[in-house]
Amino acid sequence: MSPPDGSADQARPDPEGRPAQHRGSADALHTEQPKQPVQKHRTEEHARHEQPERPRTSRRRVFPLPFGSVRVATTLGAVAVVAVALLAACAGLLGVIHQGLVNSAERTALARADAVARVSGSGRLVDRLAVPDGEDSLLQVVADDGRILAASENLAGRAPVASFEPAAGHSSAARSLDLALRPDPHPHPYRLVAVRAKTANGSGATVYAGTSLETARYTQRLIVTSMIPGIPLLLLLVAAVTWRSTGRALRPVEAIRAEVAEITERDLGRRVPVPASRDEVARLSQTMNATLDRLEESMDRQRRFVADASHELRNPIAALRAHVEVAIAHPQLLHGPELLDDVIRVQQLADDLLLLARLDAGQSPERTNLDLCDLVRTTTARRPRGRVPVTVDASGPAPVYGNRGQLARVLDNLLDNAQRHARTTITVTVTDGARGVVLDVLDDGPGVPEKDRERVFTRFTRLDASRSRDAGGTGLGLAIARDIAANHGGRLAAAAGPGGHFTLRLPHAATTGTSPGAAGA
């Protein structure tokens, strides 16, 4: 197959599956002219269906940052976390120290109460119980009938200091009480321990021994007064360090933002700076540059597409203008078939451009399960007899999931291309393999050079620049065929010869994962 292009010159079905229209007769053109209202209605309906749908994107709820700044939010968050941690640490430290001092006072009081209980049991109990000099503590022995059997100097003449006793099965009990002892009339905290004892006559009594908790309270006040002034200073230090480190971390992000803000559609060659660090910001920069590469490539492709489309439309429109000018000046010289050919060419190019726009927008018509073998037989049978006969080898079922009109358009374009370059034979085969359904279109032409097997699918590509446009088509047929194949989850490629060889691979209907009645997007 000689250098192929991608345009079909024969009448073919509409890509949406509507019946084909004959384009080769002036009588047919004049026959449809009186039906203007119907055509207007169809045009409006066609326009409504052809409007590109906006892609649906999933939206996740986004909560706004406080003050609209990541830096401020990060700093406030760090300060809040450190403040909570410090307060929890201070509370835990105070609790541990307080409990330790209380336990120490309780052990001291318990030791003294045990000593007094032993003395009481031996019958050597005296009225005034001695306490260590310089230590704020107390001792009292209370009989079961409420009499004071003995007491320290600071409890002389006082009623029982407490009424609690050890529970059954326990040797002692402890309470924290505020007591006012002589000579100080103000109450002070004490850790009081009660121990059961026996008197000389065998009656029961309770020994109360207490140790002051002023040391525990003083230690707590000292810790609080020492730490509270340091907490704000520590929080200020945390805020300053977080503010500075966050600013340094976000500096590349701000550079990316500033660079992207300067990029316009006329200057897509600019790229964002990539920091030397191999962190998330560096990967963000690389992803952003890759996105800009794809965007620039897409814009360049669109510009080339518009330029090529304008160039392709220029010649047929100029020919139409010449025909009209001749018809105005010399009506007798008007040649209807030539004028109709130019109109058909412009119409065909406009249809191809519209189909490409819809494919680029990701639209697809309704799809169903169909037999590719049946489609090949039906399509080849309805085509006009071409210059080279077509042999079809499609016997078995080959189920695929797709749109019948678009897949027929792919086959039409491949056969038009083969008719243009084949010498004597064109063969179409369909095979149902393990990895999908394969359609092959072969001819005995010169074939496609290996270096051009991808370029032939570029839009408006004609490998033979010396050919006339009438012979070579518009250069869109193969591009449309590949886009339709990709839209169906398949792939169209130019294979090695001998001769021209194009292969279309489509997934099985059972592997598409879509119900037969589902509509396209």
TrEMBL record:
It catalyses: ATP + protein L-histidine = ADP + protein N-phospho-L-histidine. The chain crosses the membrane at residues 72-97, 222-243. Residues 1-60 are annotated as: Disordered. Residues 308-510 form the Histidine kinase domain. Coiled coil: none annotated. Pfam families: HAMP, HATPase_c, HisKA. Its EC number is 2.7.13.3. GO terms for molecular function: kinase activity. Residues 41-56 have a biased composition (Basic and acidic residues). Gene3D superfamilies: 1.10.287.130, Histidine kinase-like ATPase, C-terminal domain. Residues 247-300 form the HAMP domain. It comes from Streptomyces xanthochromogenes. Keywords: Kinase, Membrane, Phosphoprotein, Transferase, Transmembrane, Transmembrane helix, Two-component regulatory system. This is histidine kinase. It is found in: Cell membrane.
